[in-house]
Design brief:
Helix content is 50%, strand content 15%. It has 281 residues and is an alpha/beta fold. Helix 1 runs parallel beside helix 2, helix 6 crosses helix 10 and helix 8 crosses helix 9.
């Protein structure tokens, strides 16, 4: 049986732009009420206004997902506005440019706090509300870099592998319950995450900007297309979703060559390797 979207309430983090904002509009069009969260107040207001055009109830929650007190307080605020929650989308995420040797411990922790710990805290915080519903669902955004781990992405890949492992274990623990879960692995989606990535102090800013510009050229899937695929995956209660032909191709390569996939990707796609690592192939 499909998961019911119409009349439900979705909590979406990172809702001010990119996939989060597109998913808010998509779910609003399907009749879902929304609780949108982001630290970007202006972007959040704009996304909320677009979603309200569909005639659904939308609440705005300005918060930083590294603030654990704010995360713990969010369910009460959402329930006060909407009365219940049927869908939690852990979408907020950041990127960090730099190899393991170049990245500080503080920057590594910053990535883990946002990409991994925030979803863990929010899932725990909302679990009671979700378990009270006849049917509820969780969406956790990983990445294709939660399936492969390119050089120059130690912190980011660590966070995305962590959210993948957490999601898969939790999905197995929830089997037979009213709560189902989808872990999403987007490939190249045209969001601002690369442009807003934090640059490690050990990297030349010009080199980082050039690498980011090259990487941005590889982003083919629109946020709206990604949002549509996520909405359909939620309806079908799919356990895993790969977004984009690039993600599906890379997933196949990793399965066939689990220890040598990067050599093969780098050899066959020097422009991809150069964009990811910031080095010429």
């Amino acid at each position: 049986m499909d998961f019911p979207l119409k009349g439900g309430v979705a909590v979406i983090t990172g809702a001010a732009s990119g996939i989060g904002a597109a998913l808010a509009v998509n779910l609003a069009g399907r009749g879902m009420n929304l609780a949108l969260a982001d630290r970007n107040e202006a972007g959040l207001a704009a996304a909320a206004a677009r979603a309200r055009a569909a005639g659904v109830k939308v609440s705005e929650h300005v918060l930083d997902v590294t603030d654990t007190d704010a995360l713990a307080a969010l369910p009460e605020a959402v329930l006060a506005e909407h009365g219940h929650v049927t869908l939690l989308v852990n979408n907020a995420g950041v990127a960090l440019i730099g190899s393991f040797a170049e990245v500080s411990v503080a920057d590594f922790a910053w990535v883990m706090d946002i990409n991994f710990w925030a979803p863990v805290h929010l899932t725990r915080a909302f679990m009671y509300a979700l378990q009270r519903e006849p049917a509820a669902h969780i969406v956790n955004l990983s990445s294709i870099f939660g399936i492969i781990a390119p050089p120059g992405n130690a912190a980011y890949s660590a966070s995305k592998f962590a959210i993948r492992g957490f999601s898969e274990a939790l999905r197995h623990e929830l089997l037979g319950s009213n709560v189902t879960l989808t872990v999403v692995h987007p490939g190249g989606v045209r969001t601002a995450i690369a442009d807003t990535a934090r640059i490690s102090q050990g990297i030349d800013p010009e080199t980082a900007r050039a690498a980011t510009a090259e990487f941005t050229k590889l982003l083919k899937t629109s946020p709206e297309d990604a949002a549509e695929q996520i909405a359909r995956a939620v309806q079908k209660r799919s356990g895993r979703l790969l977004i984009g032909s690039d993600a599906r191709m890379i997933d196949r390569i990793q399965r066939i060559f689990p220890t040598t996939y990067w050599k093969r990707i780098a050899r066959g796609q020097n422009n991809v390797a150069a964009a990811i690592t910031g080095k010429k192939g």
